[in-house]
Structure formats: C-alpha cells, structure tokens
Amino acid sequence: MNLNATLIAQLVVFFALVVFTMKFVWPPIVKALDERATKISDGLAAADKAKTDQALAEKKATELLRQARESAAELRSGADRQSAQIIDEARAEAVRIVALAREAAEQEAGSAAQHAKEALRDQVAALAVAGAERILRREINAQVHADLLANLKQELK
Amino acid sequence: MSAEHETAQQGVTAGEYISHHLTFFNGTGAKQQALIDWSVLNYDTLFYSTALGVLTCLVLWLAARRATSGVPGRFQAAVELLVELVADQAKGLIHSAESRKFVAPLALTVFVWVFLMNAMDFLPLDVLPDLWRGVYGGMGHDAHQAFMRVVPTADINAALGMSITVLLICLYYNIKIKGIGGWAHELVSAPFGTSKNPVFALVLGVINFAMQIIEFVSKTLSHGMRLFGNMFAGELIFMLIALMGAAWTGWNVSSILLFAGHFVAGFAWAVFHILVVVLQAFIFMMLTLVYVGQAHEGH
User: Fold this and answer.
1) ipTM, 2 dp
2) Active site (annotated) includes residue B254
3) How does pLDDT run across B85-118, given as a tens digit for each residue?
C-alpha cells in the first residue's frame, strides 16, 4: 500500500464521472420516474372518478327505467279505459241504430200492408163483380146485385 | 487454472507468485519502494478504474437516453430501481433539494462504479495478468515485469482518491451552506463549545479545532481504508486459494485433494464475496451520503 500519483488521477476520474452522471444520467431518469408517478396517480384518480361516474349512471338508468315502466303502465291503463269506453259507446250506438231501423222497417211494413190491403180490396171487389157478372149474366137484375155487392163491399171494409 | 500450473512448472514459489500478483504495473518495472512517491502512476489501476467508470456511465446513459414514463423494459426498470434506491437514501440523509441535484448522482456513480471495480475480483485471478504477460512479452519487454492488478479498489490510491474527493465535496458544502465565517466558527466551537472567558475560549478553540481535523482525517481515512481493506483481503484470499491448484504435481492423492480444496474454497469464497462486493459498494455510497449530509448540518 504505497501512495502515488494514481490517487490524484483517481480523484480527477471520479469527479469527471460524477459530473457526467449529474448532467446526462440522473435528470432524464428521475424525470421519467416522476412523470410515471404523476401518470399513475392521475390514472388512479381517473379510475376512481370513472367508478363513481359509473355508479351515478347506473343509478340514473335505474331511475329512468322505473319512470318509463310507470308511464308505460299509465298509458296502458288509460288505453284500456279508453277502449272500454269506445266499445261501450259503440255498443250503445249500435243498439240505437238497430232500434231506429227496426222502427222504420215496421212503419214501412205497416203502410205497405195497408196499401196492399186496399189494393187487394179493390181487386177483390172488381173480381167479385166480374165473377158475379159471369154467373148472373143470364138472370140480369143488375140493380139488385149492385146493391148486394155494395153491401158486401161495405162489409169488407 | 492453466496459469497456475504454468507458474508452478516455471518454479515460481508461492511467495513469488503472490508478490507478483500484488505488484502494480507502474511503468518503473518494479514494486514502489517509497511509501509515498508522487512521480509514480499505477497504470493498471488507472486503466481499469477509468474503463469501468466509462462503462458505468455508458450503461447508465443508455438507460437514461431511452427512459420513458411509459411501461419500462427490464433494463430500464433495473436502472430505475438503482436510481430510486439511491434517491431514497439521499432524501433521507440530505435535506437540501439543491444539494441533492449533485450529491444523488454522485452517490449513484459511486455505487455502480465501486460495485463494478469490486466485481473485478470475480474474474479468474490469472486471466487478465496472463494475457498482459503475453502482450507485454510480445512487445519485446521482460515478461517477468508484466505486473497487473485488476481490482482497482484493492489499490489504496484508488480508494483514498475517492474518499478524498468526498472530503473535498464535504468541505465545499461546509463553506457553501455555512459560509466561510460560519464554518470557521464551527471549527473552533464544536464539539466542546466555547467560553466567554478569552483564555478558556482559546484553549477550547484549539481543542475543538484539533478534534475537527482529526474527525475529517479519520472519516476520510476510514472511508477509503474500509473499501481498500475489504477488497485487498478478498483478493489476497483468492490468491491463497489459487495456490492450492498451483501445487499440482501430477495425478497423486495430495494434488487431487488440493485441487478439490481449490474448487470448494474458491467457490465458497466467491459466493461470499458477492455479498462483500455489493455491501462494500453500498457502504461506500452510504458513507458518502452521510458525510455530505453532515457537512450540511451544524454541530
């Protein structure tokens, strides 16, 4: 263990190495480390935020779903009510129309029957006169027969 | 292990083998005799420590260049792990964010660099010196003078060089944080305080100053010597283990047993040494941070 100029040389070398490390090695590595640390903490914060956001969104979605279900049920019951009402109204209308139609038909049928009856009566009288003419052609007492027929006609009324 | 056989066949004694491995390549062709000789330079220490320092910077720089804040690859993650480790320790020991901009990279450099220098111990003991012997001999020099030590931290010059750098940085921060006057005041008033009485104040001042100087010297010495001592001892034990294999004399019982001993002991020591290598690098880095942190705080 003898001391010599190597000591001084080593001192210089050491100092040069330290300066190199200080200038070119340490800053970029430490910068990268710090940047990564910020990145990670940012990422963790973002993850936390996303988690709470998701919980909120889920809550909101459930609420919306519930509302939609409720309004759908409301709509359905309204529609049910309305359709029942429409059916009822339609039924009542139908009944009314049927009654009207029946009445009109009855009326018409009644008057037609009257007309027919009258026409028939006339024709029967004419027919009877014609028949009687043919029967009684030989024994002509038109006056008697006419009275008779008038009487008969009267009875038929 | 071929190298050890060779040395044994060349009739090198155990002592010669070890002392050859403990001699630096310093251009003088021999071991340095004086305790301190500023005209001598250990080229091998300088070469390996600079090369490993450049490697350290290159590896770290590669990671830094492609560093992204996105998902890191394995390499980037490994370097980031290191940086985080060092940054955490620096944060705990140095409370000035401004100083950390310099001291944290310093600690990272120290850790990786010292670790790599220590890890040179894991290379087979004779590989690089043997290669060097071939190259040096091939260049027409005396191959017996082809000394080479590959673990720079097992050189007291390297270890003390680094600890003295740390001392200089400590002094710089002492002055920067406390100001020249503040620091001068601390030098004479801590750790024993001062007195209103001028005579006592002078006496206490001298004692305090002496204590401060002792503190700086002992911190720096122990800082460097701890690393040097551990790595030197580790290297020496690898050499002693290598002697067992080097004692091969043919297919006889003792040679085979020694060979087995070499394998078992070498394996065990290398595994244990993994701990030592990392631990010493970590301790050197931690002490660097502690000392610089102390320079920031008043007594």
Assistant:
1) 0.82
2) no
3) 999 999 999 988 889 999 999 999 999 999 999 9
Burial of B37 (0-12, 13-18, 19+ CB in 10 A): middle
How far is the alpha carbon of B142 from chain A, nearest alpha carbon, in Å?
23
Q: What is the pLDDT of residue B3?
A: 47
Mean pLDDT of A100-110: 93
Which sign does the torsion angle of CA A122, A123, A128, A129 carry?
positive
Contact, B66 vs B76, CB < 8 A?
yes
What DSSP assignment string belongs to A88-157? HHHHHHHHHHHHHHHHHHHHHHHHHHHHHHHHHHHHHHHHHHHHHHHHHTSS--HHHHHHHHHHHHHHH-
Whole-number pLDDT of residue B164:
94
Q: What is the pLDDT of residue A6?
A: 86
pTM over 0.90: no
Bridge partners, residue A4, by sequence: B37
**Number of inter-chain CB pairs under 8 A, A vs B:** 147
Yes or no: say if A7 and B157 are a contact pair by the CB < 8 Å rule: yes
Q: Which two tokens stand for residue B280?
A: 């010493």
**Chain B nearest CA to A29, separation (Å):** 5
Nearest in space to B101 (alpha carbons), one of A142, A27, A57, A56: A27
Whether residue A30 is predicted with pLDDT greater than 60 in this model: the reply is: yes
Say if residue A94's pLDDT is above 60. yes
With 0-12 / 13-18 / 19 or more C-beta atoms within 10 angstroms meaning exposed / middle / buried, residue B153 is: buried
Q: Which residues of chain A make contact with B152, given a CB cutoff of 8 A?
A: 10
Q: Is B29 left (phi over 0), alpha (psi -120 to 50) or beta?
A: left
**Helix/strand/coil for B268:** helix
B83 → closest Cβ in A2, A5, A30? A30
pLDDT in tens, B224-275: 999 999 999 999 999 999 888 888 888 888 888 998 999 999 999 999 999 9
Measured CA to CA in angstroms, residue B261 lies from A122, B56, B119, B242, B244 at distances of 161, 35, 23, 10, 7
B39 is known as an active-site residue: no
The list of chain B residues with pLDDT below 50 reads 1-9
Domain residue spans of chain A: 3-156
Separation between Cα atoms, residue B299 and residue B186, nearest integer Å: 7
